[in-house]
């Protein structure tokens, strides 16, 4: 009876461990990047425990039951129905328990990754062979992604020619960019950072060189940059070579 | 029938090429499959070396690759040479080496012998099957002489494959030829296993390998036509101007990816299951024990894998813009693969319990596989979890993971089988010191290659990059991985030299050198003559191929 209760407590703890995991609070926003690392570390422990157990048992069996002389045969006991069922149902139940635990952890991280916070800043991204173009929606188009720190950013993405993929390595996020479809990811730049986005779906000979700078800057610096872009756009609205070529395809979607 | 018909075919009447070209004997057909798949393996292996050389340096514009493929043709840039090498390596290793090696060579040679049949159900269809496959291999090799080599990766995703400068038709026709060969093979072997078992042989008395081939061909017969239709639509898109996958004409790029992986994930089990079957045979014989919990491994393990195989393909599309709900649904089904695979692994490990284990070269490879399954299987678990894959996808972590399963475990299971049944094929043993040296070079070389790729993969090294100026910190890891590739290339070379030597000069061994209880060892000669058995095989109700005590 008492054992039963302990067992149920353990099962309940296992089921709740995933969804109820507490992340560091950053003004109501859970950073998908740090959440990824937390989940990854837990899953690694899980893998090392299972792998270590099997490897140890395997190594022990190989050493313990090596033949000591010629002509020997094994002496494994006959597997009767009870043993057969026990060795099927118990491992199956344990594997399934671990699977559902992992699925719960994975799902809670997935909810973070896919639930775009309200008031996120939206940037449209389009990919072509072999460059990215960022459209801020106010007429500003750029070949680099500049974003303010402390502001969740959502990217609405598409491609103009072949399948590309938005590999935001530093923020541990990726999503494909497909012609004829719009996909999205969001990320939270919590501190100033200069990094890059790189294409992670094979798109031709220029695939390895397809990347763009990503800069998370302080809000003041971002405002300054945006103001510069807006004046640049006004003064030189005629020479926008690459952007104007890509624009019709993107807007047709 | 007289005893003279049982002289080894190639030792009796001398070598006649027409006897091999027009053969309908399952053993000779098996050997033809072996030669075809090993040819693909060697060429695709050279491409692997080219790939490793390209990635040796951050920027390879004048790196060592130029000595290998860069100057192959003046029309090729390093990037293009790299892309075509990647295409060939992937397509040939999976479609022309692993699947035909396991379901062509091993199934053809072993299944009729293991079930006590004189041949397969349709020997002439079997001959057609192997020649379609060999035509596919020739078609694949022809890409080395055409100017517009395919560069579309083994996946051939549109729209790139529609607008690529490479010749997509070669890809499509190679898939058609090998796919048609697989479908014919599937019909043949399913009928053979269902109807041609020796009198008295019940389903629970089958060799594990026969079960895994039965399962693999059930998968092939359902899923290969889907791949064939996907690449046919690709052909129509590219050359007839239809728009199945072209969004500007109302098509959908994701349709192809879904069709492709609807076959190509099950294809992993077409490789994995027969590899497991071969390992079960070697381990049970070398431990002189019956398979532990046979029925759980067969019905839970193999059956469970077949049941779940068609419901997991979206894990290849976790970051491809599929609806969120299906990514979560297929995360659960993908994780549940651990249940049937876990049952098989437990059966395999506990077959050693209270055994009398002896170690030959086949067993070396089998033991290596036991640990490669752990690494390959467990590193797949984060890739089953959608949200973790969001970071791991398209990195060398994925690349290292599936190489542990396909490139190492399944390949080494096939090598184990070649060493184990070498006396059956040739009457001679390949269990020589050179084989042991080759084993250690292979194992060490591949570990040195793929562990660094796991590490840099988690840190973000993208796949399919011939240069990586954004990631200079990974160069040292690529150096190590490249050295590993050369170590295992030395191992493979030594292994093949060892096989050739052993086939000609190897020690002649008796009919049953490993003391197996399986029909191919107990009821016929080595090598078996036409018709396989001197007299029809009949087995009793208590007979099993693992009846060691």
Task: Give short descriptive properties of this protein.
heterodimer; A: 253 residues; alpha+beta; Immunoglobulin-like; five-stranded mixed sheet; 10 strands; 44% helix; disordered C terminus; B: 549 residues; mainly alpha; 18 helices; 0% strand; disordered N terminus
Could you please describe the fold and organization of this structure?
Chain A has helices spanning 2-17, 32-64, 81-114, 219-235, 241-252, and strands at residues 121-128, 131-135, 141-142, 145-148, 153-159, 164-168, 173-177, 183-187, 193-199, 211-217. By secondary structure, chain A is an alpha+beta fold. Chain A starts with a helix and ends with a helix. With 549 residues, chain B is mainly alpha-helical. Chain B has helices spanning 9-12, 17-21, 26-56, 78-114, 123-142, 160-163, 168-195, 208-240, 253-287, 294-308, 324-336, 338-350, 361-384, 386-392, 396-426, 433-458, 475-505, 519-522. Chain B starts with 8 loop residues before the first helix and ends in a 27-residue tail after the last helix. Residues 1-12 and 67-75 of chain B have low confidence and may be disordered. At the A-B interface, helix 2, helix 3, strand 7 and strand 9 of A face helix 4, helix 9, helix 10, helix 11 and helix 12 of B.
Quaternary status: heterodimer
Q: Biggest β-sheet of chain A: count, sense, barrel? A: 5 strands, mixed
CATH class of the largest domain in chain A: Mainly Beta
General shape of chain B:
globular
Helicity level of chain A: 40-55%
**SS-based structural class of chain B?**
mainly alpha
In the sheet with the most strands of chain A, the strands line up as 3-2-1-5-8
Strand content of chain B: under 5%
Helix count of chain A? 5
Rounded to the nearest angstrom, the radius of gyration of chain B is: 23 Å
Distance between the termini of chain A: 63 Å
Tally of extended strands of chain A? 10
Largest interface: A-B, 76 and 86 residues
If you average the pLDDT of chain B, what whole number results?
92
What is the residue-averaged pLDDT of chain A?
87
The run of helices and strands of chain B is HHHHHHHHHHHHHHHHHH
Structural class of chain A: alpha+beta
């Amino acid at each position: 009876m008492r054992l039963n209760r302990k067992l149920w407590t353990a099962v309940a703890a296992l089921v709740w461990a995933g969804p109820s995991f507490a992340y560091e609070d950053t003004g109501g926003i859970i950073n998908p990047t740090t959440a990824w690392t937390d989940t990854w570390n837990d899953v690694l422990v899980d893998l090392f425990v299972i792998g270590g157990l099997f490897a140890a048992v395997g190594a022990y069996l190989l050493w313990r039951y090596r033949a000591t002389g010629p002509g020997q045969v094994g002496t494994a006991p006959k597997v009767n129905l009870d043993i057969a069922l026990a060795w099927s149902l118990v491992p199956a139940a344990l594997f399934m328990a671990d699977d559902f635990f992992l699925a719960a952890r994975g799902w809670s991280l997935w909810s973070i990754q896919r639930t775009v916070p309200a008031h996120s800043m939206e940037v449209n991204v389009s990919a072509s062979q072999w460059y990215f173009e960022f459209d801020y929606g106010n007429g500003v188009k750029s070949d680099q992604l500049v974003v303010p720190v402390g502001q969740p950013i959502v990217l609405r993405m598409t491609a103009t020619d072949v399948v590309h993929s938005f590999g935001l390595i530093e923020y541990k996020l990726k999503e494909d960019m497909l012609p004829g479809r719009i996909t999205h990811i969001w990320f939270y730049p919590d501190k100033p950072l200069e990094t890059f986005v790189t294409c992670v779906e094979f798109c031709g000979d220029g695939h390895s060189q397809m990347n763009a700078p990503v800069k998370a800057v302080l809000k003041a610096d971002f405002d300054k940059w945006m103001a510069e872009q807006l004046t640049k756009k006004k003064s030189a609205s005629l020479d926008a070579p690459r952007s104007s070529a890509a624009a019709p395809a993107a807007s047709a979607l | 029938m007289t005893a003279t018909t049982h002289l080894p075919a190639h030792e009796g009447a001398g070598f006649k090429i027409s006897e091999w070209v027009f053969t309908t004997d399952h053993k000779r057909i098996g050997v033809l499959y072996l030669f075809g798949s090993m040819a693909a393996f060697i060429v695709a292996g050279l491409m692997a070396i080219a790939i490793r050389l390209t990635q040796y340096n951050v920027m390879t514009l004048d790196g060592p690759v130029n000595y290998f493929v860069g100057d192959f043709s003046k029309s090729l840039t390093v990037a293009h040479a790299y892309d075509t090498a990647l295409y060939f390596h992937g397509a040939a290793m999976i479609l022309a080496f692993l699947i035909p090696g396991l379901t062509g060579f091993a199934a053809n040679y072993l299944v009729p012998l293991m079930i006590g049949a004189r041949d397969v159900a349709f020997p002439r269809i079997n001959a057609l099957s192997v020649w379609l496959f060999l035509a596919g291999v020739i078609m694949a090799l022809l890409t080395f002489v055409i100017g517009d080599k395919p560069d579309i990766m083994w996946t051939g995703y549109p729209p790139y494959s529609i607008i690529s400068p490479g010749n997509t038709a070669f890809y499509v026709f190679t898939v058609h030829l090998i796919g048609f060969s697989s479908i014919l093979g599937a019909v043949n072997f399913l009928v053979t296993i269902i109807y041609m078992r020796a009198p008295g042989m019940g389903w629970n008395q089958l060799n594990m390998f026969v079960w895994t081939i039965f399962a693999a061909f059930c998968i092939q017969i359902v899923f290969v036509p889907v791949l064939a239709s996907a690449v046919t639509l690709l052909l129509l898109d590219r050359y007839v101007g239809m728009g199945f996958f072209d969004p500007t004409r109302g098509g959908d790029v994701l349709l192809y990816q879904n069709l492709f992986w609807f076959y190509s994930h099950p294809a992993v089990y077409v490789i994995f299951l027969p590899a497991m079957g071969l390992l079960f045979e070697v381990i049970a014989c070398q431990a002189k024990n019956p398979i532990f919990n046979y029925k759980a491994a067969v019905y839970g393990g193999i059956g469970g894998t077949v049941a779940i195989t068609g419901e997991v393909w979206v894990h290849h599309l976790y970051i491809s813009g599929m609806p969120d709900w299906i990514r979560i649904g297929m995360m659960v089904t993908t994780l549940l693969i651990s249940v049937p695979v876990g049952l098989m692994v437990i059966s395999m490990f506990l077959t050693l319990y209270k055994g009398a284990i002896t170690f030959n070269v086949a067993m070396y490879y089998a033991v290596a596989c036991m640990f490669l399954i752990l690494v390959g299987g467990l590193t797949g678990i984060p890739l089953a979890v959608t949200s973790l894959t969001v970071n791991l996808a398209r990195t060398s972590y994925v690349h290292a993971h599936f190489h542990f399963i396909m490139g190492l475990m399944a390949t080494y299971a096939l090598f184990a089988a070649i060493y184990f049944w070498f006396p059956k094929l040739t009457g001679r043993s390949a269990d020589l010191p050179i084989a042991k040296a080759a084993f250690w070079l292979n194992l060490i070389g591949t570990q040195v290659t793929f562990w660094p790729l796991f590490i840099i993969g988690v840190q973000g090294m993208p796949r399919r990059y011939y240069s990586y100026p954004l990631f200079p910190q990974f160069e040292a890891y690529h150096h190590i991985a490249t050295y590993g590739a050369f170590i295992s290339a030395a191992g493979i070379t030594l292994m093949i030299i060892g096989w050739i030597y052993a086939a000609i000069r190897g020690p002649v061994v008796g009919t049953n050198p490993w003391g197996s209880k399986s029909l191919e060892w107990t009821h016929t000669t080595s090598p078996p003559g036409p018709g396989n058995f001197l007299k029809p095989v009949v087995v009793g109700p208590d007979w099993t191929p693992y009846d060691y005590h």
